[in-house]
Amino acid sequence: MTSFTNRYVRFYSIQQILYGPVQIAVSLLFSLLAFRNVRRIVRRQVPIVRRRLDRQMTAMILTRVVFFVIFALPFTIYRMYIINNPPSRSNSLQYSIGLLLQTSLNYFISLNNASNFYIFMAISSRYRRQVKCVLTLALLI
């Protein structure tokens, strides 16, 4: 391998590590910290409305992180596998299967961004009221 190829593979490996496992770990860490913070708010003298909204926001964040892990983990695992075992172009069947799997996982990870609306609609009554208000205003215009 040439020195350029070695540098490219090394850079690409670092990028995939930062994109995949590190991003998932940081998301999990901060969602657990938010959950712990809400547990502490219950013990303090905070208005009931604020506690309810904080619990609702934490539930939304935890659900969002769970969906993020579900959507991002298969793509991350696949990318790590491809970096360590690149498919050869001489075996066209193996190469085509790899491309199909990569395309499917790219679609799957794009659901990560589209899922926010549905997660928030399912969890938050306040969000549902706001969406209903915006949609009725949009239909009137």
From TrEMBL:
The chain crosses the membrane at residues 17-38, 59-81, 93-120. Pfam families: 7TM_GPCR_Srw (PF10324). It is found in: Membrane. Residues 1-120 form the G-protein coupled receptors family 1 profile domain. The keyword Lipid biosynthesis does not apply. The keyword NADP does not apply. It comes from the Eukaryota. GO terms for cellular component: membrane. Keywords: Membrane, Transmembrane, Transmembrane helix. GO terms for molecular function: G protein-coupled peptide receptor activity. This is G-protein coupled receptors family 1 profile domain-containing protein. It comes from Rotaria sordida.
